[in-house]
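Researcher: Next sequence.
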Amino acid sequence: MYPERKYLSVNASQLAYFQALSSKTRISIIELLQRDDLSIQDLSHRLGLSSAMITKHISILEKNGIVESKMAKGIHGQLKICMLKRNDVVLVFNPVMDGFIRNSVTKSLPIGAFYDFEVSAPCGLTTGDKIIGFVDNPGTFYYEKKEAIELMWFTSGYLAYHVPLFDIELKRLASIEFSLELCSEYVGYKMHWPSKIDFELNGHTLGGTTLLGDFGDRKGLLTPSWWNLGTEYGHQVTINISARGTSINGKRTSPTTLKDVLAQPTEALTFKLATSQEYPKGGLNIFGRKFGDYPQDINIRFAYNKAKTNLKVK
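Model: Next structure:
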C-alpha cells in the first residue's frame, strides 16, 4: 500500500494536531517507530516511562492520525503493537493561493545512472571532456563515475534504470512520460541506418520505436568541439503511459496502462531500453545534457490529475 499524502491547513482548527507534536516524549516515540513497530512495553522500557504514561501518549497520537496500533499475542498475553501510519503530511500556510497543489513532478535521471546493462561492441562511453578507457570494450560500462557520462553507444544489448518514487503522489497520478535523445549506432556515422529500440517499465512492454539513422552530417548543438568520432545528435523520443495505454511520439504502441505498471507496490520504477532483433546491428546512442541537440538526460514527468477529490485539505 502506498503512503497517502494529506494537506493540512495551518489554522486554529488544527491545534490538536500540532499539540500532539509539541511533546518531547511523543516526538521520541515517533522517532522510535520510524525504525520499527514496537509494543507499549517496548516503548516503556526504551524511554524509561511507565506503560500507563506511554499508553496516554499513544492515545493522543492515534487520535490525530499519526500512529495506529494492533493487538498481537505475547508470551504473557496480548500486546498492543504501535506503528506509524503510512501518511505524508504537507503543511499549507496559504490555502487560498492558487496552485499550492503540484500539477506535476519532473525528474532528471543521468544517462549513466543505469543499475544493470549488457552491451556488445562497437561500444563506448564518454564524459563531456574525454572518452573513457578504450572504445569497443564493454568493460568500460562499469565506469565508477557514472554521473559524469554524457554519451553512450553500443551495437546490441540493454540498459536498465531505477526511477525513485519516494516523492511521488501515486494516488493522484494521471500519466508518466519519459523523454530522451537517441539515434542508432554505426561506426563513424550513417544517416540511413535503422535500429529498433524496445522499452519496458516494471516488466511491462511499452512497445518500441525505429531510429532512422546515426546522425553526423552536422555538429550537434551541444556536442563538444573536441568530439570527432562521427555521431553528433539524435532525435527526441517521448514515451507516455496513462490510463489509455502507452504511446511513443504520439503513436499508440502498447495496451500497457498506468494501472498495470503500478499494480505491485514498489519503491522505484524499473525502466529498460533494449535493441531489437528486428535490426540486429542497428545499435543505439543515448545522449546526455552536454551532447546532441537537447540539454537533457532522461527526463521523467509525473503528471497529476487536477481533481482534488483524493486530497484532504483541512
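Model: The chain is about 15% helix and 40% strand. The CA atoms of residues 163 and 228 lie 33 Å apart.
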